Amino acid sequence: MLNKTVIVTGSNSGIGKHSAIELCKMGAHVVMACRETAYGNEKSVFDVMKEIKALNPNAQLSFIPLDLACFESIRNFVNQFNQKHRRLDVLLNNAGVVCLDKQKTVDGFELTMGVNHLGPFLLTNLLLDTLISTPGARVVNVSSKAHAKGNIKFSGNTIKERRPYRGLITYADSKLANIYFTQELAERLSDHKVTVNALHPGGVASNIWPDSKGIVGMIRRRIIKNLKKPEQGASTSIYLCSSPEVEGVSGKYFYKKKQINPHKRAEKIDIKKKFWQVSAACTGLE
């Protein structure tokens, strides 16, 4: 990974932060792609950069602001990145969110699907030329075993929202979307030396889980006590970003650094093809 350029989304907390720490230790130049200011329990990106530098004074770090809930922010990020960098060895689509209450992105889409799928879909497509021009480039998408509970439906040329809104099931939908995206992108890049893989990090105690009050908050706190630490959850992400063992492997799904089969829901080829078209329409790539 020495002197390779890596974008890590959501790198100011949780799995993304620990992925950035380890990739810097390997000698990579990590571009932190996240919000500038702190949100909830997060630290500001500059505090995190200081923390990483304290651990590793030689860490190659830079920051470009990115809000995956805003298409304009994504396009601005790509413009700034392309002005500063001529190669992209790894794109780690790590950032994610769970919304228990229905919220919207800046562009009017349901927030969980927007941040977890539509944002990374647009970001990755806008960076494709740079990825393709970089020998051996990789795209790594953080999904979840929750995809087994997901189900993607359409309303015309957009993604059909669940009614009534169910936050955790919508999260599962977005994680299934990650796998559809991984498989279809891998097929589209089969003639290029760019690999695309997805992973389940395991149950991880991170800032993706929203704060809640009352009995929901109590249940949340009990669950989190039994989850992995973010540094443990980052291990498969780091493996897919860096290991020579997965060189040339594409369109696959991993857990604990091993290739496994996703749920049969991810085998719906007709849905996968349609979903790409709908995602392109939603993000203005058509």
UniProtKB/TrEMBL annotation:
It holds the Pfam family adh_short. InterPro entries: NAD(P)-bd_dom_sf, SDR_fam. It comes from the Bacteria. GO terms for molecular function: oxidoreductase activity. Keywords: Oxidoreductase. Belongs to the short-chain dehydrogenases/reductases (SDR) family. This is Short-chain dehydrogenase.
